[in-house]
Structure formats: C-alpha cells, structure tokens
Amino acid sequence: MYIRRFILFFCLIISLIAPLILFANELIVKGGISIHEISEKQFYRDLSHDGVKLATYNHNNKYYLLYGIPYHSQIGRTSLQIKDDLEYFDIKFDIKKKDFKTQYIQVAKKYITPDKNDFERIKKERLKKLKAKSFWYENNIDLNFVLPVKGVLTGEFGTRRFYNNKEGRFHNGIDIAAKKGTLISAPSAGKVILTGDYYYNGKFVYLDHGKGLKSIFIHLDKILVKHGQLIKKGDFIGKVGSTGVSTGPHLHWSVTLNNAYINPLILTDKALIRHFSLER
Fold first, then answer.
1. Quick check: 257 and 55 in contact, CB under 8 A?
2. pLDDT on residue 183
3. Fold adopted by 102-267
4. Res 12: pLDDT
C-alpha cells in the first residue's frame, strides 16, 4: 500500500519536472535562448559579454539573465564570461543539435549583383541599421509575445537559403504569407527605433522591446508608425506587402537578443512563458 503511494507520488513529481526539462532543452539550440538565474544585485547592474549588454528578467521576485544563442555557435558545452559593474562570472550550458531546412528562391538579378549606385545605397542603409541595432532601451520585457499577423508560415528560422542557386545568408526570421494590406500588430510592447524603405528590406519597422530584445518587420506595403513612437502590444504598426527582396505578399519578422538572431516562434509558442511558469 505504502509502496504504491510512493510510486504514484514519485510519478507525479516526475510529471511535473519533466516538462520543465523538456522546455529548457528546446530553448538551448542555435537561435534559442539560454536562461540563467542571477542575484537581485546582479539584476540591477549592467551585465555584458564581449562588450554587448545582456537582457535581464524578473519573474516572481526571481532574477534571470537571458542570452540569445547565435546561429553560428558550436554544438556542445559552452562557457561565457559575463561582466557586471564590479566583477566577472561564468555561465555554462550545452547547445543542442537542431536540423535546419534548405530553400531555393528565385529573385531579380539586381538583388544578387547590385550596381555601383545601389551598392552605395546599401552601405548607407546598413550603417543606419547598425546604429539602431546598438540602441539600448531600458524597458522591462514582456515575453508573452503574440503573432504579428495571421497567415501561412512559408519560411522558417535558420533555413539555408539559395538565391538563384547561389547560397546566401541563413534565414534569420520567419515568413508569414498573407494578403497585401493585412494589418500587422506589435507582438509585444516597445519603441520604434527606425523605419524606412531600404533596398533589400523594402518598407520596414524596427521595434525595440527593451534590454536588447528587438524585432524588425520587413517587406511592408505601408508603415503606420513613426520613429520614437511608443507602441503597446497589439497596436497596428504596418500592412503586409511585397517590397524589397520579396517574391510575394508576406511579412518577414526577425528578432534579435544581444545582437544575435533568435527564432521568433520561441516567443510566440510560449516556450519561455512555460519555462518560467514551471520554475519554483
């Protein structure tokens, strides 16, 4: 009788712990997020790695460091030295293997080999994006993201992409196909740090959610917000289009954390929320 009760109790404990382990593991991949508990004092200090400031998060009076895992990271054991205002400390984690798909796309030749004038334009636009990328918005992050638009997922994060049979950079976000003019909502609150109509991106909105967590929405038909504007979750920020390097109406949405591209679906499928909800 007592043995049966013990077995049932043990199974119950395992059933509660196992999801936490699963959700933690599904985060620690290329383009994922590694979560590390820190002290309250560390939470209120500036934490950085290799000169890049890192995000911190407060949940139920427990404090965490959030590290976006770069796509080109090595699989296996990783150790990072973290600097705060007063000292250094190390965080360690194991990056799990994840397989990514391959995709072949045909685009206009001018996007593969830009002419001299276009190349100068691209350089200027890149500098503006780099400046926005370094912007730091001291805002508490709302990690409970929602999808910015309803549609069909046509491009996954991390895909190896070949443009006109020539390999380009990995796909650093997700593509959601929708009708031209479909309204796009902010997936979480933030501040508009850049907008424009660029050679590759077309019309876009760059949104800072706080503490180095940023979203960029590209190929828009219309921009509905202005630089410096504060945005609430669910506010309309633009309309789906096909501007820039695009083969049809869709939204490309990329997310960066500590300047590393991460998979946006980690934020919308509630993996992080589940992780923190199961933490004790």
1. yes
2. 98
3. Glucose Permease (Domain IIA) (2.70.70)
4. 40
CA distances from 101 to 68, 158, 160, 165, 194 (A): 21, 7, 6, 15, 31
List all residues 6 or more positions away from 66 whose beta carbon is below 8 Å from its beta carbon. Answer: 33, 34, 35, 54, 55, 56, 57, 213, 257
Among the listed residues 69, 116, 78, 76, the one whose alpha carbon sits nearest the alpha carbon of residue 96: 76
| CA-based nearest residue to 139, from 71, 247, 206, 232 | 232
Every domain of the chain and the residues it spans: 2-98, 102-267
Q: What is the pLDDT of residue 4?
A: 57
CATH of domain 2-98: 2.60.40.1590
Phi, psi of 236 (to 5 degrees): -75, 130
C-alpha 55/C-alpha 262 separation (Å) is 14
Q: What is the dihedral of CA 59, 143, 23, 263, to 10 degrees?
A: -150
Asked if 176 and 156 touch (Cβ cutoff 8 Å), the reply is no
Residues (pLDDT < 70) of the chain are 1-26, 277-280
Residues 6+ apart with CB under 8 A from 263: 31, 32, 157, 158, 174, 255
pTM of the model: 0.87
Contacts (Cβ under 8 Å, ≥6 apart) of 243 = 197, 201, 202, 203, 219, 220, 221
- State whether residue 180 is helix, strand or coil: coil
Residue with tokens 């929602």: 146
DSSP codes of every residue in 146-171: --SS-SEEEE-TT-EEEETTEE----
